[in-house]
């Protein structure tokens, strides 16, 4: 376990856990926190002994948005020069499966970062929203795009234009959330899912994740063609031969992640 200024990083077997730890600001995402998360996630992403990455916050807040106090004094010229918040692109580009475990508020940038993850597990007390409009601005870390793709135009417009929050049940109904669990079991349940994912062949997981991500980024025909070639490519893996042989021989597979 390693603690830096704004986060705690833990390795549990093949699962990496990044916990946002800025309680006095409800885990608001300032640039320093973003840099710490991205550095930790990038290190885990290039470590083949890690097969899944969990991102979580506190019980009260996953993250209550980008840090409004840090943004308040910036001008248009400042944010365009800094390409403000592009630091999170590296997190979105992580190839290892990522899971957001969300308890409490996931607002603004917090919701946007949760949506960058492959799975989103919500505690019963989770609240999602894009309240930027109430600050005279709009989502800027992918929210308009990822929310619209996840929940469709009607609900995305509703959330982005009114700034209202939705609870865990509405988020699950809308397709934003993979599963809802009780608040006190959130981390245990998420770790069980992460361990399951991490026990699979990592190269097969890279391929599967990349192909599912394509569904959001291409036409159906191009996505299906990409999927077919990626599927074909898994036949180069020892894990693919082992997984199928194990099934035929009625035994559990032993994956070597190769
Ligand atoms: N930024 C900075 N500080 C925050 C933030 C935030 N987003 N959210 C909460 N805090 C701070 C509060 O200021 C308060 O600090 P202090 O004790 O020093 O006053 C502390 O956290 C606790 O917060 P509250 O007292 O407000 O706690 P409550 O339980 O009363 O309320 C809420 C919780 C409802 C979550 C409330 O804090 C709130 O509305 N927060 C702001 C939510 C929000 O608007 N988020 C969107 C931010 S904008 C954004 O994310 C833009 C992303 C895109 C940027 C891209 C740029 C290019």
From TrEMBL:
<dbReference type="Pfam" id="PF00378">
    <property type="entry name" value="ECH_1"/>
</dbReference>
<dbReference type="InterPro" id="IPR018376">
    <property type="entry name" value="Enoyl-CoA_hyd/isom_CS"/>
</dbReference>
<comment type="similarity">
    <text>Belongs to the enoyl-CoA hydratase/isomerase family.</text>
</comment>
<keyword id="KW-0456">Lyase</keyword>
<protein>
    <submittedName>
        <fullName>Enoyl-CoA hydratase</fullName>
        <ecNumber>4.2.1.17</ecNumber>
    </submittedName>
</protein>
<dbReference type="InterPro" id="IPR014748">
    <property type="entry name" value="Enoyl-CoA_hydra_C"/>
</dbReference>
<dbReference type="InterPro" id="IPR001753">
    <property type="entry name" value="Enoyl-CoA_hydra/iso"/>
</dbReference>
<dbReference type="GO" id="GO:0004300">
    <property type="term" value="F:enoyl-CoA hydratase activity"/>
</dbReference>
<dbReference type="InterPro" id="IPR029045">
    <property type="entry name" value="ClpP/crotonase-like_dom_sf"/>
</dbReference>
